[in-house]
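Newbie here. two chains, one complex. Structure please?
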Amino acid sequence: MKVLKLILKNALRHKLRTTLTILGISIAVIAFVLLRTVVTAWYAGVEASAANRLIVRQAVSFIFPLPYAYRDKIAAIPGVETVSWANWFQGVYIDKNQFFARLAVDAETIFNVYPEFLITQSELESFKAERNSCILGQDIAKQYNLKVGDVMTIEGDIYPGKWDFVIRGIYRPRDKTTDATQMLFHWAYVDERMRQEQPIRAGDVGWYIVKIKDPNQSALISQQIDALFKNSRAETKTETERAFQQGFVQSTSAIITSMNVLSFVIIGIILLVLGNTMIMSARERTREFAVFKTLGFSTYHLTGLIGGESLLISALGGGLGLFLAFPIIQGFESFIPKGFFPIFQVEPITVFFGVSAALLIGIIAAVFPIQKALRTSIVEGFRFVG
Amino acid sequence: MSAIISVQNVSKSYWRDSLEIPVLNNISIEVQEGDFLALMGPSGSGKTTLLNLIAGIDKPSKGNVIVAGTDISKLGESALAKWRANSVGFIFQFYNLIPVLTAFENVELPLLLTKLSKSQRKKQVETALTLVGLGERMYHYPKQLSGGQEQRVAIARAIVTDPVILVADEPTGDLDKNSASEILTLMERLNSEFKKTIIMVTHDPHAAEKAKQIRHLEKGDLV
């Protein structure tokens, strides 16, 4: 018989209690992983942003447009490689609750500034050649079972009316951090129709995406762009794509902070659940610990027995929680609109934190029972009536 | 015969809050090697406390306890634990077996602290259990055994390391007459046949009759 076997036998002494504790820990780990995954998904845009891209937007607010005429002026600044632009189109496709990003973009340049959107040359050429065509992210194509040649009808809201787009390509994400849920179509097509129906909105650009040659020059180029349009009717605010994305995230910082706090509250709950089990378990075994001490078992052995049991339970709970977290998170993802969290996956760091938290809790939960067992003398232990 | 146990001017007090409760008053006693000593006395007379001091599970407030040449009253906790593992076998009133372990595993427990191999441990455990008449019930759990059988497992656990002395605290106190008689016969055999020095605390005059020597304690004094 080895000590490990004894730890296992002790852990299984009260099967129902141990099972409930393991389940409690696993549920808490699932909740922890889910919350951390949501928080990570919130920051996914920030993490995926490129260092060599600047975003130029209206200084007052993102919702105000910039003139198309800025394009050439920005392009003339030294260090600028490509200038592209986009408008937030929004609209509704089939179900207004199913959200994904729909953007009017410059067909000529958009795939230059976003090389992480992978598309075949023939699809790109077809897209460029046809004004009412669109390119779809593969996740959205899969969700709606769409293929090249299909027509998507968008009910416009910011840009009123019915808009038909022919799918001419489906882009793939370069890696798992790339958003594969966007629908991209010609800015020129939208602008042309605006020119006819609402001439006052013609030539409006939502924001410019500026690809620069040297990321180290981003601050200088940003200053130069903003200086160029200072005191104009549409002053600009230029920032790195990361800062731009962070600005979005910060607008919901209270929610994210709450979720962060909640995820650590859950760790505290696991600690209390396991701590309670270990205290009860150790208390019931006060006499047995006295027997072990009498037989010559040392402080080291008792620490190993109690700590090992606590670690075993926390590891089983943590392992089960992580094992179940993946399918549960996949199920959760299917309930939220595809484009709401374009990148929604359990990150390795979340798994690491989950495992570490479970093991750390296993150690902490054992501290008090170990201390109690070691401080209780053999004589007191034999007198104990549980 | 030489004295294997020498208790010299030992006093022991316990503290309840700020109140000192004296339990043993300047006790001195010697036990010869191979002796079978019964300690008797009313409840609260200090007999279990004296046994605990001899067995190294408690320390005297004053005086020395020397067992087989070692002054155990001067040993630190860690050294005392090692000494107990090597030198003393314990038999308790309520057996104190670990319920999740089989008879074999309970008896094997003290051997886990030794450097014996698995096969050596197995051999010793089987010998001890056979000696107490439980060779057929090695893989039974305590709840599957009678009180007398449980106490025999406890005796096997006490002798498996071949200790210098055996201490027994009311070993028949929780047993019926027949089982008690079997246990006492077994202890008698351990003393006579295997030359084990035994100190037994008991209330039972019939149990004490099995001992070679009987000492009485009253209010912390040997009488």
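Moderator note: Residues 38 and 214 of chain B are 5 Å apart (CA to CA). The first strand of chain B starts at residue 3 and ends at 16. Thread marked as resolved.
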